[in-house]
Amino acid sequence: LSLHLQAKMSRPVQARRLEGVDQNIWVEFVKLAATYATVNLGQGFPDFPPPAFLREAFVRAVSGENHMLHQYTRAFGHPPLVKILAEFFGKLLGQELDPLNNVMVTVGAYQALFCCFQALVDKGDEVIIIEPFFDCYEPMVKMAGGTPVFVPLRPKVPGAGKPMSSADWQLDPAELASKFGERTKALVLNSPNNPLGKVFGRGELQLIAELCVKHDVLCISDEVYEWLVYDGKEHIRIASLPGMWERTISISSAGKTFSATGWKVGWTVGPSRLLQHLRTVHQNSIYHCATAAQEAVAMGFRWELERRGQADSYFTQLARELQGKRDRLMRSLEAVGMTPIVPEGTYFLVADVSAFASDVPEAPGSDEPFDSRFAKWMVKNKGLAAIPLSAFYSGPHKNDYGRFIRFCFAKEEATLEAANDILQKWKQEKAAP
Ligand code: PMP
């Protein structure tokens, strides 16, 4: 027998936990955008730089005297960073936070989520996910052996003459309550919500909190867009509600907070009783996050802490700027006949594209939702990339609201101008006989 034949593998190589989670819609849409897009409003990150004070902090970290910033630091978070995060979030949550026990730094919010599911979800556990949802929650729950249980935000018809807002998408209290049961281990909350931009109100959060307390359920609260909130709306942290601190892990990241998604610095805040299990996952997988990036983010928070509530606060400025970009993109989309849902937060905007039903070729025999076919048609024919809302729904629910697409408006003026040019030209073509 030749060595060649012996070397061939015939046994299955894939671990069972990967079954059913290997499909990823982003691969397809990223490729389509790379091939056809002149303007890409699909990708969910800024095309503008982080603020100068943050970039300068990174430069100081890598070129300064302290060469130890090139080496490992504390596994669960660089000491200056966990210290300032404890101070910053302690104030917001009304808790005295111990930097060494109540904060853990992660490789972006993504790894924070992964640690939560791996550490807290067991085989047979159910995890409630509110649809539409940031798409990684579902495979992460499944990889941990858990079962996702979905509950939708249901759109209400807005008041006469009012545009639809993300606030019009609400949970049905009875429907939500019906999802809680003996096997429910955790609920994932994402406010402000990607993709809708919904900022959950106090009443809605209280409802969720009461159910979590009643059924002794954990809350994994993904708050990466916490500073991107518009029109004077307030972001409320569910961990600050009665009975919630001890059962909530709050997650955020420098990616959205400081417009530096590529640095991949994120964190979790919560009681040590919960975080200790995240630390176990962290030290047996990633172990450690980049020291210099953590140092720079610590400096960024120091800078911001000194300016809270003042005109030069970065968080205040960023939200104001993004609100202007949001309004501008809404006007451009309306001009061509799309109906935007006004987002209260995040840098995403979802628009109803049902008016274009006759422009997109039918796909007989396919169960691909209309929004997905529309997004592909739009990038191929108009050069404008966006993501179908159905990407943020679980398999059986992908057709429930399959008439919307998501745009990201965290873009330079020139990018938004180029998008507007495409939309204006499209409008003229439509008007032409
Ligand atoms: N949660 C949500 C809701 C997000 O939109 C994202 C990024 N798109 C993340 C988490 C991941 O954040 P990070 O880049 O910090 O890993």
* Mean residue pLDDT: 95
Strand order of the largest sheet: 2-10-9-8-7-3-4
Radius of gyration: 22 Å
Number of helices: 14
Overall CATH architecture of the largest domain: 3-Layer(aba) Sandwich
Counting DSSP E segments of at least 2 residues, the number of strands comes to 15
Task: Tell me what you see in this structure.
The protein is of the alpha/beta class and 433 residues long. It has two domains: 24-50 and 313-431, Aspartate Aminotransferase, domain 1; 52-307, 3-Layer(aba) Sandwich (Aspartate Aminotransferase, domain 2), CATH 3.40.640.10. The protein is 39% helix and 15% strand. The strands form four sheets. The protein has a seven-stranded mixed beta sheet, sandwiched between helices. A four-stranded antiparallel beta sheet has the order 11-12-15-14, covered by helices on one side. It binds 4'-deoxy-4'-aminopyridoxal-5'-phosphate. 4'-deoxy-4'-aminopyridoxal-5'-phosphate (PMP) binds at residues 44, 108-110, 134, 190, 194, 222, 224, 253, 255, 261, 266. This is Kynurenine--oxoglutarate transaminase 1. It catalyses: L-kynurenine + 2-oxoglutarate = kynurenate + L-glutamate + H2O; an S-substituted L-cysteine + H2O = a thiol + pyruvate + NH4(+); 3-phenylpyruvate + L-glutamine = 2-oxoglutaramate + L-phenylalanine. Belongs to the class-I pyridoxal-phosphate-dependent aminotransferase family. Its main location: cytoplasm.
